[in-house]
Amino acid sequence: IYASMDFPDVFEGTIKAGMKVSKQTAEISAQSQAEAFLFFENSSTTLMSPDIYEKYVMPEIEDWCDIVHTYDKPLIQHACGHLKDLLPLMAKTSIDAIESITPPPTGNTELWDAADILPERICLIGGIDCTVFLDSNLTELEEYVCNLTEKMKGKHFILANSDSCPPNVELKKFKMIGDFVQGRL
């Protein structure tokens, strides 16, 4: 942000050069045999304002969407952190899914709130905050997952941990969630 104020020409030139390279990368990638693409760009209002997101991030995401969709492949955006104030802008993009939507305390967005703001065509992936995954006992985690899946019933949604999984999460928690989901199918 400081560079954009102190050296606007250099800043804008750097952004344009980076966007050119990322667009070329998207084109090369889209021509591969990969069936889908996930990119990490860490949108969060702890890192940028909605104005910065709209001016610099959205156009680049739209370029990537245009390229990847030309090859009939989905583009998935990794976006963790504080997304609530960015969701109205994200709703205007052509992204196919948003992965790692993070509820409190790590993020600030519950999946059901995101589902109310984003168009139904955008699949939501996540919902289990890493601290809940780590700190909850099996009963608490099952209650959390049950509540989450009930609130997301009928939505375009994939249950997953949000952002990252702490290294000390016990395997039995993954098994419990797998069994819970299998029991609901």
Helical segment tally? 8
| Strand order, largest beta sheet | 1-2-3-4-5
Please write the string of helix (H) and strand (E) elements. HHEHEHEHEHHEH
Strand content: 5-15%
CATH class: Alpha Beta
Structural class of the helices, strands and pairings? alpha/beta
Q: How does the major sheet shape up?
A: 5 strands, parallel
The helix fraction, in percent, is 40-55%
Mean pLDDT: 93
Domain count, please report it: 1
Shape: globular
Which value, in Å, is the CA radius of gyration?
Answer: 18 Å
Q: Enter the CATH topology name.
A: TIM Barrel
- Please name the CATH architecture: Alpha-Beta Barrel
Give the low-confidence spans: none
Give the N-to-C terminal Cα separation: 48 Å
GO molecular function: uroporphyrinogen decarboxylase activity
GO biological process, one term: porphyrin-containing compound biosynthetic process
Domain Uroporphyrinogen decarboxylase (URO-D): 15-182
Protein name: Uroporphyrinogen decarboxylase (URO-D) domain-containing protein
